Design the sequence.
């Protein structure tokens, strides 16, 4: 049995040759022989012969990437049991056996049949065994050995992380580290120099350098300026074999970007700016935008602006546009060309983020001058007051002057002003304004009780002339608040409609009602009303009135013993006088109803009492009532019978006949029926219908006749644009006066052909009219079949049946 395998250097292989004669396995790498050592374990197949054996192992080495045409010889296996008589057979198993490695079963020679790649697999573990050729019984225990693939320089260095992107601040000192690159070589680092790599820079000098062993890239020039060049592309090479001749190499690119630092101050593109703005520019509007250039980017280019001095303090302000870094000048106060026509400003721009490392490069600020010129525009008129309050009495006559509004032209031209009222604020046109003077006057009588305050909008416009087709849009407006003062023009009346109840058991001097009054007027000193009974009732014996001196009055009884049967209602005229100047009064009637009340004075029933008829017994009253009922029943029966006897053909007026179908089983007379309906009415333009003839029945007499020529002109004599209109109007009037027309809107259809054709009407119906000049006498000669037509249209005697 195989106890162990021990590796021996190649130098010891020569010592193994004498062991072959002693019957052991051994290996000679030069000859490929594997021989048995006498220090092996006892052979289990040799019964009583227990010779102690040991095994010596040496690795097989195979060169990778062998390009020969023949299989590559690896080594030889040999057993001392093999006497050379062919009874022993060698068997190989393990990694790559039969697919990569083969063994000659007779001689034990091992060959590699494929190219090996150390980078794919560095060694192979195989097992060898000697067996009896006939019985396949092992004559030696299984032995394991290793075939190691020997490396050659067949892989170039590779940058697994490339290409690289790196950045370094501009103006960096010499030797500043930028980035470190690294290349890997797949060859064996423990064998030779195949995997030992050195770095060099191929492209990118003299700006950058690379350390050969570490791959660290550093700046090779100081103070590189981003504004001059902001990006560099380097090519770095890695070469194995320590850079010696014949080594393999690989390259990668490194893009180095110079990052910005604040090393440039802002600079105005112009030292003097001039801008022109209209004097009507609204507040907070942009007056101008100025720009200061800064070669830096990002936060290093941010800047602040300020107004250092100028002749318009508080007129302007300047801010920074955060997106464009422009200076924005904003108007804070209104401009007035007539007051000041130009402004001069001095503005400074300063970097917001200053790097102390570059202060030596100079001040990071700049200044410029800005001149703002105000352009004169035609400004709208200016009212002396935006709100005018006026008072007018409601009894003012039409044309009374109330007050005056005033406006002036702020421009140097000082044009005249025209005034007008916005009629949307004076829809009923109570007021007028003088266009030239601005005096407001009344145009209608005023009523304070209807509208006590009028809010007018007055327009002011320059009165100078404008080009034809144009008008001034420079309008200004003012509010005129007109208050209508009160006069005493309304008499006082009862505050409410009183319902006064008087108990029959009321005592003399009892208060039955307390009344008050209201007045639409509003005197400054407040209302004061006086109450008294009107003259007709001043001396009555039933009631009296007491003025309470607080704008109320009490109605009292003068007597008792009121009876409903005697008089159920009393009407008491009350005179109310106000305290105005002149005083106004009104007489109001207070209705007092006499009621039957309980002991607490609560009314139970009021009004007149029905008297019971005397002299008739209850039986007589019932008999009279029975007769009346009998008469009513008879009348109802008669009416019902008459309705059943004659059912009307037309439905009741309150029903809509359009919702019903009336069927008439009446057949027409066919072609011989010439009087069932007159079709000429719908087609002949020159025939006027008799308005007195019913149209819902068949006429008994001819329905057409001639009117005198002076009554109406013929349609044929009318112009074409009038004939249709006259025709429609005539039919409309006929339908309006027709008693048989339905009481609702209906559709009238007229087959009107007109009279504009050169050939005139082709309808034979027109021949029925009396104006027809066609001679149909020849019809009587056509035989009995045309007798009807000859009678209708023939005119042998020179007269018409409708004449």
Sequence:
């Amino acid at each position: 049995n195989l106890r162990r395998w021990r590796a021996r250097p190649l130098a010891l292989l020569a010592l193994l040759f004498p062991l072959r004669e002693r019957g052991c396995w051994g290996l000679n790498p030069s000859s490929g022989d594997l021989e048995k050592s006498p220090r092996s374990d006892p052979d289990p197949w040799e019964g009583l012969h227990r010779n102690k054996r040991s095994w010596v192992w040496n690795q097989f080495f195979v060169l990778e990437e062998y390009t020969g045409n023949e299989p590559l010889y690896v080594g030889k296996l040999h057993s001392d049991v093999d006497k050379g008589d062919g009874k022993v057979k060698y068997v190989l198993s393990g990694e790559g056996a039969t697919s990569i490695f083969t063994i000659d079963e007779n001689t034990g020679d091992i060959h590699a049949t494929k190219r090996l790649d150390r980078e794919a697999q560095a060694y192979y573990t195989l097992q060898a065994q000697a067996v009896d050729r006939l019985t396949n019984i092992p004559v030696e225990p299984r032995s394991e050995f290793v075939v190691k693939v020997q490396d050659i320089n067949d892989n170039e260095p590779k940058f697994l992380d490339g290409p690289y992107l790196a950045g370094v601040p501009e103006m960096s000192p010499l030797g500043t580290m930028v980035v470190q690159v690294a290349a890997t070589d797949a060859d064996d680092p423990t064998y030779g120099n195949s995997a030992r790599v050195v770095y060099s820079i191929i492209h990118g000098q003299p700006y950058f350098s690379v350390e050969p062993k570490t791959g660290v890239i550093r700046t090779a020039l100081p103070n590189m300026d981003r504004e001059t060049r902001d990006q560099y592309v380097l090519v770095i090479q890695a070469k194995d074999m320590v850079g010696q001749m014949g080594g393999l190499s690989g390259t990668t690119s490194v893009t180095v970007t110079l990052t910005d630092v604040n090393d440039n101050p802002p600079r105005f593109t112009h030292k003097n700016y001039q801008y022109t703005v209209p004097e009507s520019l609204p507040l907070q509007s942009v007056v101008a935008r100025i720009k200061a250039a800064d070669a830096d980017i990002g936060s290093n280019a941010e800047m602040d602006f300020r107004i250092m001095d100028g002749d318009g303090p508080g007129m302007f302000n300047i801010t920074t546009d955060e997106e464009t870094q422009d200076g924005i000048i904003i108007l804070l106060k209104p401009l007035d060309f007539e007051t000041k026509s130009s402004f001069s400003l001095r503005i400074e721009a300063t970097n917001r983020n200053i790097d102390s490392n570059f202060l030596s490069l100079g001040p990071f600020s700049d200044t410029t001058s800005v001149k703002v010129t105000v352009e004169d525009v035609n400004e709208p008129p200016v009212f002396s007051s935006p709100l005018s309050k006026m008072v007018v009495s409601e009894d003012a006559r039409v044309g009374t002057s109330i007050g005056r509004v005033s406006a002036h032209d702020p421009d140097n031209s000082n044009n005249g002003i025209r005034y007008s009222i916005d009629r949307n604020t004076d829809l009923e046109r109570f007021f007028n304004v003088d266009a030239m003077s601005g005096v407001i006057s009344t145009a209608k009588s005023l009523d304070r009780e209807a509208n006590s305050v009028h809010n007018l909008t007055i327009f002011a416009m320059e009165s100078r002339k404008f080009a034809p087709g144009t008008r001034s849009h420079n309008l200004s407006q003012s509010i005129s608040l007109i208050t209508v003062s009160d006069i005493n023009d309304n008499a006082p009346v009862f505050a409410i409609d009183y319902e006064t109840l008087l108990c029959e058991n009321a005592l003399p001097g009892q208060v039955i009602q307390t009344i008050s009054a209201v007045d639409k007027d509003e005197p400054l000193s407040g209302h004061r009303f006086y109450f008294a009974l009107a003259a007709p009732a001043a001396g009555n014996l039933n009631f009296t009135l007491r003025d309470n001196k607080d704008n109320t009055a009490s109605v009292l009884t003068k007597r008792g013993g009121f009876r409903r049967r005697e008089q159920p209602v009393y009407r008491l005229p009350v005179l109310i006088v106000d305290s105005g100047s002149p005083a106004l009064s009104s007489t109001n009637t207070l209705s007092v109803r006499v009621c039957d009340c309980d002991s607490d004075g609560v009314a139970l029933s009021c009004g007149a009492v029905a008297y019971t008829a005397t002299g008739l017994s209850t039986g007589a009253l019932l008999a009279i009532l029975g007769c009346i009922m009998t008469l009513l029943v008879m009348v109802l029966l008669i009416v019902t019978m008459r309705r059943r006897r004659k059912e009307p053909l037309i439905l009741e007026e309150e029903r809509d006949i359009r919702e019903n179908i009336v069927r008439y089983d009446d057949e027409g007379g066919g072609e011989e029926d010439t009087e069932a309906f007159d079709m000429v009415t719908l087609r002949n333009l020159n025939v006027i219908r008799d308005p007195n003839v019913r149209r819902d029945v068949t006429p008994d007499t001819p329905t057409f006749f001639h009117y005198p020529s002076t009554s109406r002109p013929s349609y044929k004599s009318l112009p074409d644009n009038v004939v249709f209109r006259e025709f429609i109007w005539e039919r409309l009037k006929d339908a309006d006066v027709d008693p048989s027309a339905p009481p609702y809107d209906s559709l009238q259809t007229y087959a009107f052909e007109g009279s504009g054709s050169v050939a005139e009407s082709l309808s034979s119906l027109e021949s029925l009219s009396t104006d027809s000049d066609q001679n149909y006498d020849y019809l009587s000669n056509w035989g009995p079949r045309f007798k009807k037509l000859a009678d209708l249209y023939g005119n042998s005697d020179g007269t018409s049946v409708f004449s």
About this structure: Residues 267-375 form a domain with the Immunoglobulin-like fold (CATH 2.60.40.60). Residues 184 and 615 are 147 Å apart (CA to CA). Helices lie at 618-645, 680-683, 720-737, 787-793.
